[in-house]
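mind reviewing this fold:
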Amino acid sequence: MTQLTREQQIAALEKDWAENPRWKGVKRGYSAADVVRLRGSVQPQYTYAQNGAEKLWAKVNGGAKKGYVNAFGAITAGQAMQQAKAGLEAVYLSGWQVAADGNTSETMYPDQSLYAYDSVPTMVRRINNTFKFAHAYAGGEGMKHYVEMVQEPEFAAREQGYTFVSHQQEVGAGYFDDVTTVIQGGSSSVKALTGSTEEEQFH
């Protein structure tokens, strides 16, 4: 990939600001030269963010199926997936939801940005990873993709001294499984794992 010169970057940015309808009506107190001057020599590409922003822009400007974009708040990747399956075209991730119950500090906070700085990015990555995983399933990869993306890395990590199994053990997965087994009269959803490589994580 050819690196554009500073002058080429300035010209490209000025052209985008002038011609792209997304920037119509936007007034700036700085120039394209100011922006380029502050850029580093290596510019990261944020593919998920760019694709998401472009898709949302297209939908709120006439591309939505219903003529408008509605969304529910998702606090887990599973919720986001269910919303997508239900037909919603966007997912809303709220800061107050992250503060209340989805931050990496494992604590509940008022919505005053007191939680760990990586909390929202971590939640976004979970959602993106789930959609990426589901996309692979829909593309026909199925269980093969699960094995390659999840199981094999888990088992390979044992060589570094930490595993998914030990993580399950330290948070008490076996205890909660025993509780559900008693509540359900001797049956539990994880009984299906008996004899499998995942069985030991629950003991």
Notes: The chain has a mean pLDDT of 80. The CA atoms of residues 6 and 39 lie 10 Å apart.
